[in-house]
Amino acid sequence: MTFGHVKGSFLMHFDSLVSLSNASFGIVGQMTNWVPVWLTPIWVLSLGIVMGAVLVGIALGVLTLLSLTPLGRIADSPRSAVTASLVLGGLFALVLGMIFVPRGGEYQGMLILPMIVIGLIGGFAVVYGMWQRTRRELGAILTEGVVPYVLATAGCFALVGLAATPLVSEPQQIIGSIWQVNLFSDGRTEVVRQLDAAAVDVNPDESPFQRVPLEYVMYNVAELTLTSDRTIIIADAETPSKFRMTPVRVDAGETIRYLREEREAPPLPIDPDSVFMQNREIDPATVKITLVSRPTVPEAASIVTVAIILFGFVMSYLAFRQAAPRVAAVALATAKSEMAQPLYLLLLLIGLFGVLLFGIMPFNTLGEDIR
Predict the structure, then answer these.
(1) How far apart are CA 356 and CA 37, in angstroms?
(2) pTM of the predicted model as reported, rounded to 2 decimal places
């Protein structure tokens, strides 16, 4: 074999190694892009699980303290327990209905039954949760049947998600958005402001800009609607020489709508203390502004949702087990019998593997998304 053949063979192997290394670096580069994207939803749900666990701990702690008072003996009499649960559940349902049914719009009627059911579950959970017997059996309630499987799965999920915190982009912003979630309202605020009429003998362009007091956080405003019965100009200063934003003209009867998702410039200044309006007509103007606030990071609503689901699951199971012990015993025996089968664990592992696999596969396209 000549030196030329040896050299050619070496160069061919070297090119293959370079190509392989480039492909490897390409995969690593892609991972640095999609791994944070994949882990962020898991991290968000993990926060919801942690928040739900905290709520469960607080609720069980309060109920345990109440069980040491005379209220802990109400459930000793089944009739007294059911009566107290129905009365308390009715009050819960009434409060929930007053809060959430008006937000249903044309579907208000469909929310009545769910509010009643949730209220009754809450009533039974409180009455039987502060039962002295529940305090003694609390350990068994949380360690038998399907509950330990659900809690263990949620715990592992939370640990994996929280361990990925360094890889999550802007976690502080997501956490800060939790307190902006509209839990008891739809985030809608309507304000009406009156503007003085312009002078008859003054050119409309020379009419004074009037400061309009408003309260809002523009970064949280997802939707804004503004109407006026007179032609007005909106600016962020009292005189044109100090304007920083382009003035917005609103003709009489015109409706201006702003949507954050469309990434357009809002018609109001970022600073609510810098809202000035000019009335260009000789009659007083009535300006109506409707603001709809949403969290800065919309995914923060998932954290609250997961926390409520976990809290509702634990409290519902507690109420079911203590209020209907015979039915709960049959359900528990059936669950233990089915979970003892090898097929149960096999299906559980296959499901877990599928969740993780299909969460990764859509991102591993190596730049060939279309193909």
Answers:
(1) 14
(2) 0.72
Neighbours of 143 (CB within 10 A): 10
Q: Would you say 291 and 33 are in contact if contact means Cβ atoms under 8 Å apart? A: no
What letter represents residue 66's amino acid? L
Task: Give the model confidence (pLDDT) of 215-254 as tens digits.
Answer: 888 888 888 999 999 999 999 888 888 888 889 999 988 8
What does DSSP say about strands 285-293 and 221-228: parallel, antiparallel, or unpaired? antiparallel
**Quick one: tokens of 2?**
């000549």
Report which secondary-structure segment, H or E, holds 244: none
The interaxial angle of helices 325-339 and 300-323, nearest 10 deg, is 110
pLDDT in tens, 94-121: 999 888 888 777 778 888 898 999 999 9
Query: What residues contact 69, with CB distance under 8 A and at least 6 apart?
Result: none
What angle do the packed helices 342-360 and 3-67 form, to 10 degrees?
Answer: 120
DSSP letter at 231 equals: -
Q: Which residues pair with 193 in a beta bridge?
A: 287
Q: Does residue 315 contact residue 125 with C-beta atoms inside 8 Å?
A: yes
CA 80 to the chain's CA centroid: 38
Mark out the alpha helices in the chain (DSSP H runs): 3-67, 78-100, 108-129, 132-143, 147-163, 171-178, 300-323, 325-339, 342-360
- Who contacts 308 (Cβ-Cβ below 8 Å, separation ≥6)? 52
User: How far apart (Å, rounded) are the C-alpha atoms in residues 288 and 284?
Assistant: 13
Distances in Å between the Cα of 329 and the Cα atoms of 122, 320, 322, 323, 339 are: 21, 10, 10, 12, 15
| End-to-end Cα, the chain, rounded Å | 44
Please name the residue that has the structure tokens 């015109």: 254
8-36 confidence digits (pLDDT tens):
454 454 454 444 444 444 444 444 555 66
